[in-house]
Amino acid sequence: MKMKPFGKKSLAMMLLSCMMLITAACGTSSGGQASGEDTANAEASASGGSSPVKVVWWHSMSGDVGKAAQQLVDEFNASHKDIVVQAEYQGTYDESLNKLKASLGSDSGPSLIQVYEIGSRFMIDTKAITPVQQFIDADQFDISSLEPNILNYYKFDDKLYSMPFNTSNPILYYNKDAFKAAGLDPEKPPATYAEVAEAAKKLTKQGQAGGSFAIYGWFMEQLLANQGAELLNNGNGRTSMATASQLNSDAAVKTLDWWKQMVDDKSLLNLGRKTDDTSKAFAAGQIAMTLDSTASLRSIVKAAGDKFEVGTAFLPKPDVATKGGVIVGGASNWILNNRPEAEQKAAWEFIKFLAEPKSQAEWHINTGYFPITTKAYDEQNVKDNMKQYPQFQTAVDQLHQTEPSLATQGAVMGVFPEARQLTETAIEEVLNNKKTSKQALDDAAKVITSKIEEYNKTVGH
Amino acid sequence: MTLPNPPRSRARAGAIPLKSLRVSRWKERLLAYCFLAPSLIVFGIFLFYPLGKSVYLSLFLTDPQGRIAEFVGTDNFKAILSSDQFCNSLWVTVKYILFTVPTGAAAALLLAALSHQKLRGMKIFRFIFSLPMAVSVGTGSVIWMILYHPTLSILNYGLSFLGIPAIQWLTDPKWALPSIAMMTVWLNLGFNYIVLLSGLQGVPDDLYESAKIDGSGSVRTFFRISLPLISPSLFFVGVVSIISAFQSFAQINILTKGGPMNSTDVLVYNIYQDAFINYRFGSGSAQALILFVLITTLTILQFKFGEKKVHYQ
């Protein structure tokens, strides 16, 4: 009987928690209404022109790069009185895309979202976006000054579905001082696989390994494109939907063998999957060479500081004569089609602003991403920056020397993020002596192919 | 709630006719269900509804946005049970349980036995030993991420003084799972320690005194008196640790993301990847159901066989 008062109390607690739940649920639904009103406002402003149109931009730029992005947004907002862009950092590209997936079919999504290049096929297949081409055509917007290699990547069926914003490619970073100490010519960085392996051996000594490449699927994709090998069938998924992975090509096996050989003779460290860890080791002088994105250039040069001079070189190839080039990495901005027309137009205005030579010049200098428009190179601040940091030139040259082909246009598939994961696991299996390069890549290609098939089945192609 | 009722009803039965007895019994039952209703609603919304939905989803294929695309019957289950990745995940999970549960309980028991002594300043030790409980999984993982860092690892720095070459804690497939297990043991130490210490403190002093009079040494006293008497606490720690080991996720997501070579890809992480990264809700739900069955069976088995060895006072 003593239970009774306690029971009452816990009942009250339960009722209270129930009420809290219900009110919480109500809270979100009223939130939904509020955003509905916002869009109504946006439409009203389009006709009446009273309050500014709000554009919500989801992006994945953090740290210094995030600050540079915010700076661009602030400049846009200051110069456009009728539009307010609200930039929201949504975590990494993966996280942001996952949030978008969860928000599709509801009103909680953004008006504009930055998606990494490998999410492009998925974005098109969602049918939830308005192709940027529509605005380009309607506006007679001149895209002739845009970097042709970048356009090549983002054009599907000769249409631009999204507008490229930040583009980068991988380069070889090396420690010039370590090169000197090892008797290598710091002005003549290794260009071929054999040269890299040889340099790595010479650079390896107590407390310093020749180099380290993060186990990052992107590097594998780039190393393949750099020798003209396609990752998928059907013209890398460009001529028609890809149905099979070609990850087990000879080019890939050769590349992985080369990588493994260096790990085996201890001239290359295996530091795991994060480029963050390799760049830290590079800055600490523990490794003398590393692969990383050009977007990290600024921070790597800063981290090396006065300790040593950072050199940059092209991504290595099996031999000099191999044809190929790098794929344009980075991300583009997509306009969602469930937003009112006025808001989509406002988002387009912001996209145009971001593509201006002046914005791109500023962006390039602050980050290391290269400008998407060739006109940016004429800006004085870009010229000055190139003089101060000649390392920036490498990325630009590498991009310009890339010969357009289906391989360098980049592979297109809906399950790209997953394929990358599987590739990374395959590399790990090889480096840790579980499988041979051929075996691991065969297995990975088989799994990726089955994932592609399943994807194609569910999107109805 | 219904247990104390019969005597009371019987007392009334003397005065009130049979029919109204039945009515009042019904009334009482109804009242009981009213009291239970709130928790039933909460369980219903957050447990039974999702469970039902999982069963439903496990029979379908979903498109990349997670929408239902096609009915596939039991194909998801067949595909999972025959896939290498699932077998690997299951094996990793078993290893992970073997690494964390016995060591975690043993370490906590050792600390509890040591700090059970009545000495000055023991409270400080007790405070320190239960401290990991106040650390969240996320914070703990970040701390250990730095300890395990491939090039800046403090643990490796310490090992270098002993002349041991650096260990790639999280990037070597041989070490990744033990490293995560080590971190988990530390993380769960606080909770296990508190449970076992309170168990030890519940052992009556007169038992120790009579043991002392009989000339039993401290080791013998521990194994013959303390250990059997705290077996309910040990059993509890065992059951809870196994369930929480099955459900470990955050430390793996932060430290290794299932890698390298899927060597830390425990079941829950595999489910997360399938359902929320690759948006295959069908196969994710099917795996979740298999995990549910596994945990339920294991817990029933533990209660059936393990509990027999437990000594309740």
Search tags:
heterodimer; A: 461 residues; alpha/beta; D-Maltodextrin-Binding Protein, domain 2; 2 domains; six-stranded mixed beta sheet; three-stranded antiparallel beta sheet; 13 strands; 13% strand; globular; disordered N terminus; B: 313 residues; mainly alpha; MetI-like fold; two-stranded antiparallel ribbon; 72% helix
Structure characterization notes:
The complex is a heterodimer of chains A (461) and B (313). Helices cover 54% and strands 13% of the residues of chain A. Chain A is α/β, with parallel strands linked by helices. The longest helix of chain A has 46 residues, at 3-48. Residues 1-7 and 25-49 of chain A have low confidence and may be disordered. Chain B is mainly alpha-helical. Chain B folds into two domains: 5-57, no CATH class; 76-309, MetI-like fold. Chain B has 14 helices and two strands, in the order ααββαααααααααααα. Chain B has helices at residues 5-13, 18-57, 75-82, 84-114, 122-130, 137-147, 154-161, 173-201, 205-213, 218-229, 231-246, 250-255, 267-277, 281-305; strands at residues 60-62, 68-71. The chains are: A alpha/beta (461), B mainly alpha (313). The interface between A and B is large, with 45 and 35 residues.
Strand content of chain A: 5-15%
For the record, give the distance between the C-alpha atoms at the N and C termini of chain B, rounded to a whole number.
Answer: 25 Å
CATH class of the largest domain in chain B: Mainly Alpha
* Oligomeric state of shown chains: heterodimer
Domain count of chain B: the total is 2
How many β-strand runs of chain A? 13
Number of strands of chain B: 2
Describe the biggest sheet of chain A?
A: 6 strands, mixed
Strand content of chain B: under 5%
Shape-level CATH architecture of the largest domain in chain B: Orthogonal Bundle
Helical content class of chain A: 40-55%
Mean pLDDT of chain A: 86
